[in-house]
Specification:
2 domains; 7-stranded antiparallel beta sheet; Tumour Suppressor Smad4; 5-stranded mixed beta sheet; phosphoprotein; single chain; FHA domain-containing protein; hypothetical protein PF0899 fold; alpha+beta; 234 residues; FhaA_N_sf; 18 strands; Cell_Proc_Reg/RNA_Proc
Amino acid sequence: MGLLDSFEKGLERAVNSAFAKTFRSGIQPVEIASALRREIDTKAAVVSRDRILAPSSFVVHLSDDDTAAMRGLGAGLTDELRALLSKHARAQGYSFPGPLTIAIESDDKVATGTVTVISGAADERVTWQAIVEVDGSRHPLGKARTVIGRGSDADITIGDAGSSRKHAEVLWDGERAMLRDLGSTNGTKVDGQKVREAPLPSDTVVTIGRTDLVFRIVPVADRGDDATRAFGAL
């Protein structure tokens, strides 16, 4: 089922058929979804072999009449649009530099029945951060060598009796990552295969003992203040 088919089914849940008749002379909600998809596909930029960055902020410009009709649907419309755009981004492998936002605004330069979409990334500078996820917790890799193991002196400590005190290490140079087993008793697996050393693409699963860790490379948005936020693909 395609994006617009999914949207039409979601729209049927959000509004009844009598209310939907008010859209016949103006913009259709499904046309907004289509315009958002075109905008994100057009603006998505390949920043490395396995990273595609997409805009995260969208403003939909409609005529006064179309804006009034869409706002009559309430928050359900923008929630549905955001969910569909997130689903499309996941399917395409896009990453967002910040929270995904969609706003609908009236524009007297836009004719009834047409839609204009403006996108951006909220003026954020974007860099890339390596992280390791353990039991839902994210551990940013802030240095070139990160040791993982059971010992209290490991950089990332896991409470698994099947792991060694210093079990494995992740080497990160800001662009690429490598996993290296540190002579552990029970060994280390990458995506189910036992290894002594292996490259780590984003979304790789590393198994130490009975614990699964996920290595990811995510965009980090810096707005120029002291707050830095990391986001994965939605």
